[in-house]
């Protein structure tokens, strides 16, 4: 592998010169200089020696997934000069060789974007600034941790083991008993009146009230979340304290997200759930039946199976509505959609609305050539009976095509030469200039306005595509 920037950073952090590090690694200074400048690769022998001497994980030198960074760089750096877009190869080189600089550029752009949103809100009384920043920050936090928090997951699994040893009741019954015996909290159910709360915890009375129309899995999750806040608060605080949060709202949102992570691990303990997932080849509906929880809960938990030594398929989890809004997005890998301009209409999560309850499978290819297997299915939530408005979403799970053979959903697909649907990260940053489904022009591309001719492809541009564009 070529990892010159990372090796140079490691050397400088240790306060070593090239000559000193070369002597430690028993190689020549000229050879080390070539490795640091990416003219020679980092060999296995040198990598093993580095791991032995410095006690670091070899993954420190691995090339980072750059698809997500590239999508955000497209937004942050659309042009090299007015009307001249930056080449995809240049952006990819930046993301690959200098990931920390890339993150700094993206962070700077986000601050600029947030400032512009608030400026628009202040200068136009009809506009309200969208409260997206806290969610974006928390989403990025989980992405940096590959959507897995080891200390919380293991603590929850240990507690689940102790609860299972205490009695033969189902998960919901064990959680109810634990709240009552350990915390003197009663759990009751009550019918909802109109649009009332799904759950409510009264700390003074020691009473957790759950809506009677929540199914067993939802009730178990709410009880597990309360247990997380009561028993894992110190662990959650230690995770939060390791980060710098922009404000208290974002920190509290992250706290709730960490409590939800603990709750998922409590009702779906890692080892048992991972084993069942592998045995069923990640069949979401089979797992939902086996663990008596909903389709969405299973899909979300599958996206968190990234424990060292027992890694599941690295999934991307999304939830979208009919209007194209992505209300949930968690990822253990690099797939990323743009923050601006909506998502891609060719993505199968939108086709799934046409066939409620049916699993839709798609092999999708991003503009950079990365291919993914996507599985999408509707989930419906209803409050009340006939005539009430239901909440309908599509839950999507995606993984890199090289992992697809581990999934039951790849059955019957030719994974070596699959039928591929070209998708993109959102029209405003997508490089597929000839896509007939484009809903807005590509940022950084001046439009070609010609009254004498018309084209099937919308938003034609004046300049030819740069290298790496389609």
Automatic annotation (TrEMBL):
Q: What is the designated name of this protein?
A: XRE family transcriptional regulator
Q: What is the source species?
A: Mycolicibacterium chitae
Q: Which residues form the HTH cro/C1-type domain?
A: 7-61
In terms of InterPro entries, this protein maps to: Cro/C1-type_HTH (IPR001387), HTH_RamB (IPR026281), IrrE_HExxH (IPR010359), Lambda_DNA-bd_dom_sf (IPR010982), ScfR_C (IPR018653), TransReg_Diox_bact_type (IPR050807)
**What domain of life does the UniProt record list for this protein's source?**
Bacteria
Keywords of the record, alphabetical order, are: DNA-binding, Transcription, Transcription regulation
Keyword set includes Nucleotide-binding: no
A GO CC annotation recorded here is:
cytosol
| PANTHER family in the cross-refs | HTH-TYPE TRANSCRIPTIONAL REGULATOR, HTH-TYPE TRANSCRIPTIONAL REGULATOR SUTR
Q: Which family does it belong to?
A: Belongs to the short-chain fatty acyl-CoA assimilation regulator (ScfR) family.
- A Pfam family matched by this chain, by name? HTH_3
What's a single GO MF annotation on this record?
DNA-binding transcription factor activity
């Amino acid at each position: 592998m070529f990892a010159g920037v990372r090796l140079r950073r490691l050397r400088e952090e240790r306060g070593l010169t090239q000559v000193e590090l070369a002597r430690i690694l028993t190689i020549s200074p000229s050879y080390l200089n070539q490795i640091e400048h990416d003219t020679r690769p980092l060999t296995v022998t040198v990598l093993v020696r580095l791991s032995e001497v410095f006690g670091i994980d070899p993954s420190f030198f691995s090339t980072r997934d750059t698809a997500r960074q590239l999508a955000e760089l497209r937004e942050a750096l659309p042009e090299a000069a007015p009307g001249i877009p930056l080449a995809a190869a240049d952006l990819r080189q930046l993301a690959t060789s200098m990931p920390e600089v890339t993150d700094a550029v993206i962070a700077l752009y986000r601050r600029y974007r947030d400032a512009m949103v608030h400026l628009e809100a202040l200068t136009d009384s009809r506009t309200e600034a969208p409260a997206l920043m806290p969610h974006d920050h928390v989403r990025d936090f989980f992405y940096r941790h590959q959507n897995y928090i080891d200390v919380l997951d293991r603590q929850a699994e240990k507690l689940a083991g102790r609860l299972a040893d205490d009695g033969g009741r189902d998960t919901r019954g064990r959680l109810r008993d634990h709240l009552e015996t350990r915390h003197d909290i009663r759990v009751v159910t009550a019918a909802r009146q109109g649009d009332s709360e799904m759950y409510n915890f009264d700390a003074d009375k020691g009473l957790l009230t759950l809506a009677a129309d929540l199914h067993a899995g939802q009730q178990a999750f709410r009880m597990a979340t309360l247990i997380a806040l009561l028993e894992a608060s110190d662990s959650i605080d230690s995770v939060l304290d390791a980060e710098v949060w922009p404000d208290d709202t974002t920190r509290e949102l992250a706290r709730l997200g960490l409590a939800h992570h603990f709750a998922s691990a409590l009702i779906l303990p890692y080892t048992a759930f991972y084993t069942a997932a592998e045995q069923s080849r990640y069949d979401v509906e089979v797992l939902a039946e086996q663990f008596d929880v909903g389709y969405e809960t299973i899909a979300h938990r599958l996206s968190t199976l990234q424990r060292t030594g027992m890694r599941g398929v690295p999934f991307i989890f999304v939830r979208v509505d009919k209007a194209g809004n992505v209300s949930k997005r968690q990822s253990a890998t690099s797939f990323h959609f743009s923050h601006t301009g909506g998502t891609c209409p060719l993505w199968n999560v939108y086709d799934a609305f046409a066939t409620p309850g049916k699993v839709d499978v798609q092999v999708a290819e991003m503009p950079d050539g990365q291919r993914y297997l996507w599985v999408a299915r509707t989930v419906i939530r209803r409050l009340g009976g006939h005539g009430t408005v239901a909440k309908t979403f599509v839950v999507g799970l995606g993984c890199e095509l090289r992992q697809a053979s581990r999934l039951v959903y790849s059955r019957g697909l030719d994974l070596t030469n699959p039928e591929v649907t070209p998708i993109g990260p959102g029209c405003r940053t997508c490089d597929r200039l000839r896509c007939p489904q484009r809903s807005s022009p590509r940022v950084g591309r001046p439009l070609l306005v010609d009254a004498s001719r018309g084209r099937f492809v919308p938003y034609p541009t004046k300049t030819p595509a740069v290298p790496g564009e389609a």
